[in-house]
Amino acid sequence: MPQKPLVTDAPIPGPGAPTAEALQAEILERLIYSVGKDPVVARPHDWLEATILAVRDRVMDRWMESSRETWRTSKKRVYYLSLEFLIGRLMRDAISNIGLMEPVRQALKNLKVDLGDLINLEPDAALGNGGLGRLAACFLESMSTLKIPAYGYGIRYVHGLFRQEMSEGWQVELPEDWLAHGNPWEFERRESAYEIGFGGHVEPVTDPDGTVRQEWRPNDHLLAVAYDTPIVGWRGARVNTLRLWSAQPIDPILLDKFNSGDHIGALEESARAGAITRVLYPADSTAAGQELRLRQEFFFSSASLQDIVRRHLQHYGDLGSLPDKVAIQLNDTHPAISIAEMMRILVDLNGLKWAEAWRLTRGTFGYTNHTLLPEALESWPVSLMERLLPRHMQIIYQINADVLAEARQRARFSDAQIASVSLIDEHGGRRVRMGQLAFVGSHSINGVSALHTELMKQTVFADLHKLYPERINNKTNGITPRRWLMQCNPELTRLIGDRIGPGFLDDINLLKGLDAHADDPTFQDQFAAVKFANKERLARLIKTRLNVTVSPDALFDVQIKRIHEYKRQLLNIIQAVAMYDEIRAHPERDFVPRVKVFAGKAAPGYWNAKLIIKLINDVAKVINNDPAVRGLLKVVFLPNYNVSLAEMIVPAADLSEQISTAGMEASGTGNMKFMANGAVTIGTMDGANVEMHKEVGADNIVIFGMSAEEVNEKRARGEVPRTAIDKSPRLKEALESVASGVFSPDDPNRYRDLIGGLYDHDWFMVARDFDAYEAAQERVNELWLDRKRWYGMAVRNTARVGFFSSDRTISQYAAEIWGVGEQQAS
């Protein structure tokens, strides 16, 4: 039987969609004349490139018309600056968003090529780490969908984040070679190249009118060259641009050195430039690593601002209208140096007075804060900044003087408050606080969940909030339903469309119509059948990659995210050890079969995170091979977590682990992806879990653990965690087995310090939340055994996910921060 067309394959508005025959001819033409291959000898990568080029042709007219329309109407543009864009595979996204899935599938079938195979062959662009980069990608897609003129600005990493492999259970970092076969989506824009400087000195220069200005004279120069990628909105509503910068030397080879025999030294400038865009997040545990990371951040910030100001002047002729026509959003502190760089461009290069330049800068910038962790709020040694960016250090000092004068004179701040709001941290070596710089230089500072925003006001920016009480606002994160429901779970999308109609494809809030069907036994059976098929698919992947057999009948318990102590993968694996002990001790009991699925990368220099990965793999090895477990518990760690792997795991999850220490997760977006795909969340009242609890209702989510206030109280009291461990026999037994080497017979002391930390300080409340977590997991078991109750909860999670669409988030940014959108005059 022919497959029923996906409801996501509705044709785009306007002239009829091309036929499969027309697309077949276009793909063949591209294969022969662009790829240069005869169909008889073409390899899969050749067909992939030819298909992308044929689809790209269909996008080009919309892309150009989107740009023309913005120029014609003089609409305000949004510029989103992010060090990460985890865009994933683009071909399926584009084909789906312009409604060509079935014609392309049929065209390739006629050519004896499978579209699914090509989709899986496209590499994941290694341009991000986790939630921050995936959020930026969702936001770009939503801006295109909502017809907001926008550019994303980032770095074209050659290798990006590392490829993660396992060696005897340890994480090994290898280069992610995503550009090995080129990137057919991108266009190099050699005409959009900007000179970026580092180092040197600053000299005062007197202009003919007697004005004295500062002129930065760098001694190190390179070029930032633009590469543009189209970002297609839903139904091709608009195509915006992701502009990524590649660092290239001004002189690719120093011929005098080469001719004198120094063949390696002759390429020194090329190597220095190439290092900047080689790898995402170079380890900053060394002085050289810190300098490289700061170079990266200034490189892409300066290139982006030069491009923005050039475009604005080309269109409007003066800079006075900058805040009216330009909105720049800083995604975390990585591009915070943009505040000082914009002031340099306005004052030094364009002759504006300081006060006017500051008014324009502050009116143009917005800053999104993503963390309350002090180590994640970047700061740079003053000595490094003065050596690498001497003019910017002068500007930061001047901004700081103005801010501190205002704090002292207008707000009557105390010395302690002055120290708190200062852009220079004087404790333990003078450092420039980039979070403070982004805050004072922006008219809007937003958190990414309701709880996170309130905690910002009370903690990291408490005194700045007192000084500027109107600036902090909340914009709860969201995900694009196109990728995270319609594309990654087409069978569920089809089922929903059959039940409530296809309107939800254009208005995700219409998913609420599923509420009426949540307790319908027929719909529950259909919903469960889709989930089971997704679990079978994941089980096959686990077997292929890990040679571990798991049963799709088991409860799939999933925690996939960056490995970090505050995200508490350690709590999860310790509970698995406790469950293992219980299964062996009580073979007479009935247990709910579980598969615990982990995935995520640890930062190369983060020892405890890498040790937790090793522990998960060690525990998995013991449990999965113990016949006494009788298949009731399996533990798997899937390496090299990325967008494509998430698209396989998320639709298969029954239980979503969102168990961070309360008060430490800014928002989370994985929680929203699982919710959209009908997983039930077990979690703390942290980040966006708080709003999920409100949206889905207390009966449809499993909440446990301490609140953020209780965590802070226990930390403030200095309570000894050993007491909590002594009161919990199951926890104590699990910890002792891990610490004593039960799971690491080759090195019995491997986990002694990791577990010892739970006895000594337990900063992340793993031990003190364990009993509550265990009780919550028992609650999950009870719910799972009540099939009608479980799938009623699962359906309601999908039905009520509309609030967590990135379309809603971007609509709020547009109306409340940027002043853009449909309301703009045409």
From TrEMBL:
A Pfam family cross-referenced in the UniProt record is: Phosphorylase
**Needed co-factor(s):** pyridoxal 5'-phosphate
Per UniProt, the keywords (alphabetical) are: Carbohydrate metabolism, Glycosyltransferase, Pyridoxal phosphate, Transferase
InterPro entries reported for this sequence: Glycg_phsphrylas, Glyco_trans_35
Q: What is its EC number?
A: 2.4.1.1
Q: What catalytic activity does the UniProt entry give for this protein? A: [(1->4)-alpha-D-glucosyl](n) + phosphate = [(1->4)-alpha-D-glucosyl](n-1) + alpha-D-glucose 1-phosphate
Q: Which GO terms describe its molecular function?
A: 1,4-alpha-oligoglucan phosphorylase activity
User: What is the role of the protein in this entry?
Assistant: Allosteric enzyme that catalyzes the rate-limiting step in glycogen catabolism, the phosphorolytic cleavage of glycogen to produce glucose-1-phosphate, and plays a central role in maintaining cellular and organismal glucose homeostasis.
Write out the similarity annotation: Belongs to the glycogen phosphorylase family.
Name of the protein described by the UniProt record:
Alpha-1,4 glucan phosphorylase
Q: Which organism is it from?
A: Devosia albogilva
